[in-house]
Amino acid sequence: DQQVKQNSPSLSVQEGRISILNCDYTNSMFDYFLWYKKYPAEGPTFLISISSIKDKNEDGRFTVFLNKSAKHLSLHIVPSQPGDSAVYFCAARRLSGGTSYGKLTFGQGTILTVHP
Amino acid sequence: GAGVSQSPSNKVTEKGKDVELRCDPISGHTALYWYRQSLGQGLEFLIYFQGNSAPDKSGLPSDRFSAERTGGSVSTLTIQRTQQEDSAVYLCASSLTVQVSETQYFGPGTRLLVL
Fold first, then answer.
1. Where in the sequence is the domain holding A37, given as residue range(s)?
2. Contacts of A44 in chain B (CB under 8 A)
3. Is residue B3 part of a domain?
4. Buried-most residue among A20, A32, A100, A106 (CB within 10 A)?
């Protein structure tokens, strides 16, 4: 079963506009969420994270929003740049407890294309 | 400093053969993780090591898969009697510790193709 879902396989945005990438999760035990960016032939690189005690975290052009009641998070990129074109993965983990709390559970990814 | 490195970068093998994939984590990182990404799928957790603790093997898909970490550093993922469904990109990551605040840094991956 897919515990973390990114329902949009791709997103196309004009340079300078806002990119909004969405992610839903089903496991209520998740309490820490991350976004990773991946370029072709490279490993994923960490972008931004948010703890479940917050509803927003901002880092430069990147903001992550968390709606715990809806089990939904989103990544906003403003303004979008052509260099942001990559695959974006949402991931979730547990803060504590159990033997598997170190692992990340990933969504399927969303391909973002930012056009000049 | 050097990041996570993996070898080989690409591996083509015949069904039924065994393969070994290697991961060199960032120096000083005590936690090491293996994930795989099949075509069109997200990253799937396989196994992680934390210091001298017993590894969490809960993500290994079958007993054909095994991994070890020697000396708390280099790790090898072994797939015995490979099947076509094992074709994927195998990614290794490391972090300073397994604590949630520690970022997992990924290597470039090994692309495995089983014919």
1. 4-97+106-115
2. 43, 91, 106
3. no
4. A106
